[in-house]
Amino acid sequence: MSAAGKGTSAWKSGVKRLLGRTGFDIVRSGNNLGGVDDFIPFEATMRAARASGMSVGDHIDTVMNGTPGATRSTIDELRALGVFAAGPATVLEIGPGSGRYLEKTLKECAPDRYEIYETAAPWADYLVNTFGVIALPTAGSSLAPTPDASVDLVQAHKVFNTVTFLCAVRYFFEMARVTRPGGRIVFDVMTETCLDPAAVRTWATQGGTGHGSFPAAMPRGMCVDLFASLGCGLEAGFLAPMGVASTEVLVFRKGA
Ligand SMILES: C[S@@+](CC[C@H](N)C(=O)[O-])C[C@H]1O[C@@H](n2cnc3c(N)ncnc32)[C@H](O)[C@@H]1O
């Protein structure tokens, strides 16, 4: 093998090893105070996506994660549940990373304003420059720059299984606060629905080194009760692939 080939293969195996570890963490992303504080490297990922001829999101699903169509299928489920039908005017996403859900969300609806809270600065800059979204200062679990009851759709994908319990639940309170009456809250968490004995064995034997907080579990009942106490009822839940097993996407609607 050539030196270049060896370099590429070392990079690939490094990426695989790290992805096996957390599903996503490679590059330090700044001020995340709650758990895994790294994200995949911007330049290398963009280069690899360009070489594969795919969008960066499809490249991550297909090549890096080995789950082609994973983002698409979650977006399809959300469409079938009517999440985009109301034409959300304001969308807020926590931890969009490469923007693989953001890009597909923008194909489903045309919000006037799309706010992001993202700790990985190079990715946040890329999303601002590519999609015209608005990156807001991201500190721990606060959505302070966003006013109460101002957002029609609040979403976070593959974020709350990479941060600590406190980071996630502090965001939950904030998500309920910023959502407009009638608005939707969509996020995934690794609930007991995803954790039958076979799945736990799969994580234990194939889930990487267990570095950091990934994959962090979250009780489903706690989420449902907490959001109910904040005026948001559970509308639906469905499974989506994550790492070596799955995560559960929950859809809440804030009461009018
Ligand atoms: C596993 S990645 C998922 C990225 C993207 N949502 C996706 O599914 O492709 C987790 C994302 O959350 C970001 N992140 C980590 N801690 C955060 C925090 N406290 N607030 C906002 N974003 C955070 C990371 O930088 C990264 O972009």
Automatic annotation (TrEMBL):
It comes from the Bacteria. Residues 92-187 form the Methyltransferase type domain. One of its GO terms (biological process) is methylation. It comes from Streptomyces achromogenes. Signal peptide: none annotated. This is SAM-dependent methyltransferase. SUPFAM superfamilies: S-adenosyl-L-methionine-dependent methyltransferases. The keyword Ribosomal protein does not apply. It holds the Pfam family Methyltransf_11. Keywords: Methyltransferase, Transferase.
